[in-house]
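Researcher: Going back to the complex we discussed earlier. I've cleaned up the inputs and rechecked each line, so this should be the final set. Can you rerun the prediction on the complete assembly and write out the structure?
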Amino acid sequence: MERIRSARRMFSESFPPSPKFTENDVPNLTQKVFLVTGGSSGIGLELSRVLYHHGARVIIAGRSEKSYNEAVSEIKANPAKGRNNFPKGSMEFLKIDLSDLTTVKPAAQELLSRIDRLDIAWYNAGVMIPPVGSKTTQGYELQWGTNVVAHFLLNRFLSPLQLRTAESAPAGSVRTIWVSSSAHHFGPEPYGVNFDDINYDRAAKKPAPFLTYGQSKVGDVLLAYEYANMVSDKGVVSLSLNPGNLRSNLQRHIGNIARRILGFLLLYPPRLGGLTELYAGFAPEPAAKKGFSFVIPWGRIGVLNKNVQIGIEQHGTAKKLWSILEKETDKYM
Ligand SMILES: NC(=O)c1ccc[n+]([C@@H]2O[C@H](COP(=O)([O-])OP(=O)(O)OC[C@H]3O[C@@H](n4cnc5c(N)ncnc54)[C@H](OP(=O)(O)O)[C@@H]3O)[C@@H](O)[C@H]2O)c1
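Model: Rerun complete. Updated structure for the full complex:
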């Protein structure tokens, strides 16, 4: 029954109404400092474009300086849509490979040596349905390790600076945004994370790749939820989102013909995903209530998958994941 409900919800999130929150609603961002993981491509690039053209200092974290340089040229050559009378900001590269936890601490230390405030962190980088059996350097299933574990560890380093920033920033303006997906409706039963064997190392049959992608996107939701519990009283807004179905490099592991058909039928320009992430960062609604919110395309407050919500509320899945990852990442601190 919940599968049918999820499919319906996913369908409705796949065909959203036109965005109400656009580039024109983003304020002047001079003096603000933002981090975008995976900002050299797809949705993160569209987000970075708007931040830069509104005056912000944008740190783009990724593993390839070449991709970063190409993104910067593209962003500078093509201003964000809408009003364009803001001073330009600045962009800088931060090297990190989220599929290798040993790169997280040096990246975080480098970042903390450069900045003295962090207004918003968008944990946006992600990988989807790589070849079955793909692993991170530490042996995590690649999507889980990249999308969830590495962002968790990065956040452990950046959280103190965000809390300090919130002490003097306008209420609701300091945010941590954990990018999830409509795929969070399709994590493993019953509550979205297979806690007994998260990496499916002991599974007799390897799971369908979309199931493990879905699990990683449930992981992002759970971290956003638990972090909201921990920091919303201290002025940091933690939320998660489904950016929508966008044409980007995320579909790189899907076969060419399938990708073209999918792209033609179902995917939207990545700018719209950028708008969802901008809404999460700057719209008042996600900060209006204490605690967690889930944003859906192209900038609305939505609801979580019911089983994921039940897992959180009745079975403590968010707390459980937080404490597992704390133990697992202690040695990389
Ligand atoms: N596109 C969609 O339809 C859609 C739908 C729902 C949710 N999302 C989510 O939106 C986010 C952005 O996706 P996108 O569509 O913009 O995809 P994308 O174009 O592939 O961008 C993903 C970014 O993540 C980076 N990344 C991947 N693995 C990394 C690693 N090990 N270390 C550092 N950076 C890494 C990529 O860098 P490289 O170029 O070096 O790989 C790239 O810059 C993801 O979290 C995705 O799950 C996307």
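Model: Worth noting: The radius of gyration is 18 Å.
Researcher: Good, that matches what I expected from the previous run.
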